[in-house]
Amino acid sequence: MGALLSSTEDEREPLLNTTPQSDSGFVQPAGRVYSRRWLVLGLFSVLGFMQGMVWNTWGPIQNSAKQAYGFTSIDIAMLVLCGPVGFIPWFLFMWLMDKKGLRVTMLLSAFLMVVGTGVRSIPLTDLSIKKWLIHGGQLLNGLAGPTFMSAPPLLSTTWFAPDQRATATAVAALLSYLGAACSFLIGPLVVPAPNQTAVLHCSADKSSAHIRDRVQIVLYAEFAMVFLLFAAVVAYFPSRPPLPPSVAAASQRLSYRSSFCRLLRNFRFLMIALAYSVPLGILAGWSGVLDMILTPAKVSQVHAGWIGFWSTVGGCVVGIGVARFADSMRGMLKLILLLMFSGATLSSTWLTLTCLPDSGSHLPLTTATLYTSCILVGIFIISSVPMFFELFIETVYPVPEGITCGVVTFLSNLFMGALLFFLTFYHTDLSWLNWCLTGSCLFSLLLILLFRESYDRLYLDVFVSV
């Protein structure tokens, strides 16, 4: 199966001109890296940061939003679901990325974010219209999600040398997670809780008005930041550099239709795609109701938010560090993922046994063990995202990077949606969610163990180049 699905020699032929004028006698590729690549990476990453922050605006301040705008729990859930719903037309963004390039896709995504954050921030006294505008704005922001979740490997391949690709992928992919985590700090810091405003104001109406004013400050600030970034993308965000940085960046890719056929026939890709999408989707749904899961363990909503924040921040920091190591020690992606998901399986099992009901046999429950196990789960799984992305591209090369990662991010959102769907029926005892998380980590670990890795893109850059 692997031999039949590997790239042909014609597909591996480099498009770069070569020159044999090297001191060592080797033929050197005429590729070049430009310092402007850091500007391109910065713009993409900060926009992804803002997309994640806008998506998670309402979760951390849901109690304040309920009093100020009359939101119900269903409204808050719908605002959160705008993220996965935004992935429904993902194939259109992948087609646009493949046919028109990264600049056009970024302009469209940033424009959707500008309009979305703009309509949310319109000051209206009619709360019914305001609620509709907020929902519409969240949906428009969600539609930009496929670009920022799927394009990092395309950006890193197009702009960065082979020994910097994993690091660039990690920065571009993980900043959106960091934006969602930072909203846990910014929202509660600016918007007071209802019980705090009740002390400051003599009536519920004044309290609600004060909360709305503070929420409006957050909405204005997010709109202003997104607008400035959109203007920067309009001013400068090229699809590609004048000269490609590597042979792989200059090589031909499969067509849009051929790419999907290749992916669906590649059993090894389907294995590693499930190894990524199942635990990432389960973790996303599990994190969204973390406060409800930890309530039987006497953990407050505030502390649950801090657990989610530190697990995400830790995952981003560790992910970038591991990616830098992967750049210096290429060809070790499978080993790195095995180590990560061994840790994820052990820490999720630790968490599950700690949170078992009192009637069962379980490990001692302390604040330290609960915090440590929850944070370790997030660190191990989130930090694996860039490693998976790089392994996807190596496995299915020359399928375009955007299409490959678009498929797997859609699958992860599909599993998250399935988990949230079952949650509507089984919401009395949420301990089963911990078992789902543990099972998904073990499932992924087994798939990675059975996976046979290959490095077709690395073969081009290291061997064909010389």
Automatic annotation (TrEMBL):
Record-annotated membrane-spanning stretches: 38-56, 76-97, 104-123, 143-161, 168-191, 217-237, 267-286, 306-323, 335-353, 368-393, 405-426, 432-451
Cellular localisation: Lysosome membrane
Keywords for this protein: Glycoprotein, Lysosome, Membrane, Transmembrane, Transmembrane helix, Transport
Cellular component per GO, a single term: lysosomal membrane
Any GO molecular function: transmembrane transporter activity
Record field: catalytic activity: pyridoxine(out) + n H(+)(out) = pyridoxine(in) + n H(+)(in)
Superkingdom in the source lineage: Eukaryota
Transmembrane is among the record's keywords: yes
Region described as Disordered: 1-23
Membrane topology qualifier: Multi-pass membrane protein
Family: Belongs to the major facilitator superfamily.
Function: Mediates H(+)-dependent pyridoxine transport.
Protein name: Solute carrier family 49 member 4-like
Biological source species: Acipenser oxyrinchus oxyrinchus
Gene this chain is encoded by: Slc49a4
